[in-house]
Specification:
Blueprint lengths: L6 E5 L7 H11 L3 E6 L16 H9 L5 E5 L5 H15 L4 E4 L15 H29 L3 E6 L12 H21 L4 E8 L5 H14 L3 H10 L9 H12 L10 E4 L7
Length: 273
Amino acid sequence: MRFAGKVAVVTGSGRAGGLGEGIAHRLAAEGATVVIADIGGSRDAATPGDMVGGSAEMQAIAAALPHGGSTFVCDVRDPVAVRALAAHARDTHGGLDIWVNNAGIGYIMKPLLEVSADDWRAVIDVNLTGAWYGLQAAAEIMVAQGRGGRIINIASQAAKSGFPHAQAYTASKHGLVGLVRSAAIELGPRGITVNNVCPNHVTTGLGKWQNEHFAAVQGVTVDEYLARMAARIPMGRPGLPSDTAAAVAFLCSDEAIYITGESMNVSGGEEPH
């Protein structure tokens, strides 16, 4: 029970089977009180209902947590909403010890010459700027508490390598590498560590959409696409939500107290950078 008495926020954790849900359940299984945060439903073209966590789904995920918790509807593109989320964790549960920036857009994938300014802005606003808002809001409370903390971004293999049809996504995830390196320097003296976790492909609900999209782009079946993927991964399979959740739990633990400013690959050996 490494996280008994700790309060954690996980953004983008309102979809069943997603990385955020897996992270939330792992932290809760080890004693943390977890706030399930997500956008609550579609708000515009960039947030289709089948790609975001809805309010009912959020409630169901929170209800299944073993050590209690709560839900909070938050659009990470809005700094006021993000600060309200951080305040909710502090005021409702007595503090804030762990913040996981997991919310992200990975479903706007187009050839370079077809990407619009709105497409670019939507991805950067959520994946990079939203993570910055979360980092700042969490750090403000953690500094005031004076007991340190853990801030983790769910980056991606795309934080290290480029991929076709993913210009904004790759740029946003590369940006997280610079963000943690800088934030770690400033927050280290406060006992707050800041790190990225960089998984390779994980077949969540979003991952299933990506499988279908890129299989069609390559003119192969989904099974053929997945077989090619597995063949290039030394461990012989794509990632699982539990793989990412385990890395997050480690970085949140006392065992990782001297690790900060890092971008940890969780890729079965696929990503060497």
